[in-house]
Amino acid sequence: MKVEESRKYWVALNLVLAEKLKAAKKIVDHFSTIEEVFKASSRDLIALGIEKEKAEALTSSKILDQACREIEKLERKKYSIITLEDASYPEYLREIFDPPFVLYCAGKAEALKGPAVSVVGARKPSAYGRAVAEKIARDLASRGIVIVSGLARGVDSIAHWGALEGGKTVAVLGSGLENIYPREHHTLFHKVIEQGAVVSEFPLRSPPLGFHFPIRNRIISGLSLAVVVVEASKRSGSLISARLSLEQNREVMAVPGNITSGLSQGTNWLIKTGAKLVESWEDVAEELPSPLKEKLLSQKEEKKEKPPSMSPQEKRVFELLGLDSLTHIDDLVEGTEFSVSEILSILLNLELKGLIFQRPGKYFQRRL
Amino acid sequence: MKVEESRKYWVALNLVLAEKLKAAKKIVDHFSTIEEVFKASSRDLIALGIEKEKAEALTSSKILDQACREIEKLERKKYSIITLEDASYPEYLREIFDPPFVLYCAGKAEALKGPAVSVVGARKPSAYGRAVAEKIARDLASRGIVIVSGLARGVDSIAHWGALEGGKTVAVLGSGLENIYPREHHTLFHKVIEQGAVVSEFPLRSPPLGFHFPIRNRIISGLSLAVVVVEASKRSGSLISARLSLEQNREVMAVPGNITSGLSQGTNWLIKTGAKLVESWEDVAEELPSPLKEKLLSQKEEKKEKPPSMSPQEKRVFELLGLDSLTHIDDLVEGTEFSVSEILSILLNLELKGLIFQRPGKYFQRRL
After folding, report:
1. How far is A235 from chain B (nearest CA, A)?
2. 3 state DSSP class of B320
3. Do B240 and A97 lie within an 8 Å CB cutoff?
4. Residues of B with CB below 8 A from A279's CB?
5. Do A288 and A296 touch, CB atoms closer than 8 A?
6. I want to staple A263 with a disulfide (CB 3.0 to 4.6 A). Which of A120, A231, A269, B117 is the partner?
């Protein structure tokens, strides 16, 4: 069967089971083609562990007609549909435990190919969180990273707006594409599809039900190489997203904040439990895979101003260090009139100026 | 020679070489007793690499008289002196690369025995830094931890004041005990010696010279099991202290802050490069050695209110977990009607409520 033909079966399956990840996965794993699902009896499906009501919906004579009507509506809107069988299905998303088998897509589907980083966080961020979300999204997008988020209020929408300043962004909805939520983000929706895409696994008219959002979050992180959390209270959905991202082997990073701010408790907790602390786009870039990381960081080099100045003492120590060799701290103490404390202070200053770096075992080296 | 008699030799050596850590270490390592140093000729000392001026000072006939007068002054003030030979010399301080061979001590010398944690940071902290320094010092001191700091303006003095609310504190000066710096901390000096001690390796009248402070910092961390940095700008002395503390194998911890605050750039940098993120005294306690750690954290348990409530879903999952056994996440998915996303969300909530913890490999366990 051609991909075009199989499409209606995927859409039909999704109309019934988009909200039931476990059941959907059971079916997809059991049948060798999507067509076969619709040859099965409801008894077969129930035996697989599918609820009676869902099994009957799947075997009803109406379901394929409904799917065809859904596809027609999509075509009229110029939305596209991407199934697990499509070569254009986003590569990273395919790797997660429970990839959506259908993605409804408004806008430019190629944006889904990334490379992407998601920026998520509190629904009601502080001024601090807003400023940080905007800057990190803009800085990354302007360097070619697609910013993925959830079109939600707060950090999500700020991240989309920040990304739109400089590049591409992708929004993943917890409702259908014809049921944009929250309503006030209609303008943002249209801006996003001009420069990127809005996607959803839920049928076109699906409402934004509460339990859709944690399910949706696995797509946000699934599309991304890394997830940056900007402000999150201690019991927020963003932490659940972050945990899910770890399960998907995504890098999880967080922006720290004052311990007196409830909105930073979640991000500080993430950092304490292993998430990388993010202060700038460079911190994000450093955790991305090669050669993307090097490509991004070389853009930093290009924009770099003249090297920082050094004190005579710093120059003294700097000149004892090599570009492609390691020097032990003992040799620096031996080779100069400085005490251990003084050498350490000088080395630290050189490191903070970005002129040298430290290697394990108290070895030091110049930066290129 | 009795310890009492050798004392004047140590004081004499210190009068000449307190500021010259490398030279002092050379001498102490070379001679088998402190008395022998004063039998050596200035030529012998110069051959060891001691500057001519210092060698001549050490061999001058006046130096031992000066030392005796220094000791008399100390006795009049009821200050004590602790040398490297004394059994009462602080155990942890003795382990560092370059321990001071003489400690002048005002107040209660037993406070030097710890267990101690140092709290250091910016000279001009923000309101945030002040609040945090005070609380962490107070919380730790009231649980029996001696708070060590530098009597400096800002975080140092706030940490001392906080500690005085609940327990003991030790101040380490960069000047002599008769030259308290900064002047406005006279009251604090006297408060500290009532409940703890003020120490210095510098002779009584030594001025607070700039280069004394990095030297002094090695004593602050040397006396402590761990160093907590509360606010530090990117090029601050606190970062040098922190680096020194790492060299001394001390735990380095830092309080995070907004990335938009210059005063948090140093602490965020420390966290990014491996320092533990600190939000509360419990975070500090968790990094201290056993059995101290357990003793401190059990105080937390005693003060604990009734356990947090659970939703029916949380209760469901909680009841599948054991107190002394590990349960894999797959078994929780298998054993319930919940999807992977839902289980993750429930587990995260239970973890945030302090009811369970996660172990490597996606295993979960109840907390005791």
Report:
1. 7
2. coil
3. no
4. 259, 265, 268, 272
5. yes
6. A231
Euclidean distance between CA atoms A198 and A200, whole angstroms: 7
Nearest 5 degrees, angle CA B49-CA B52-CA B56? 115
Residues whose CB is less than 8 angstroms from the CB of residue B185 and which lie 6 or more positions away in sequence, other chains included? B151, B153, B157
Reading the block at residue A363, the tokens are 């070895």
In the block, which residue shows the tokens 């939520």? A181
ipTM at complex level: 0.74
pLDDT tens column, B115-163: 999 999 999 988 889 889 999 999 999 999 999 999 999 999 999 999 9
CB neighbours of residue B322 within 10 Å: 11
Point out the residue among A97, A132, A259 whose CB comes nearest to the CB of B259.
Answer: A132
Q: Does A340 touch chain B (CB under 8 A)?
A: yes
Contact criterion met (CB below 8 Å) for B155 and B122: yes
Torsion of CA B127, B133, B135, B138, to 10 degrees: -140
**Choosing among B128, B255, B277, which should be mutated to test the A contact, i.e. which has the most A CBs within 10 A?**
B277
B197-252 pLDDT per residue, tens: 999 999 999 999 988 988 899 999 999 999 999 999 988 878 888 888 988 999 99
| CA distance linking residue A282 with residue B127, whole number of Å | 29
B22/A contact by beta carbon, under 8 A? yes
- Amino acid identity of residue A302, one-letter, is E
Residue B106 has pLDDT above 70, yes or no: yes
Asked if B247's CB is within 8 angstroms of A264's CB, the reply is: no
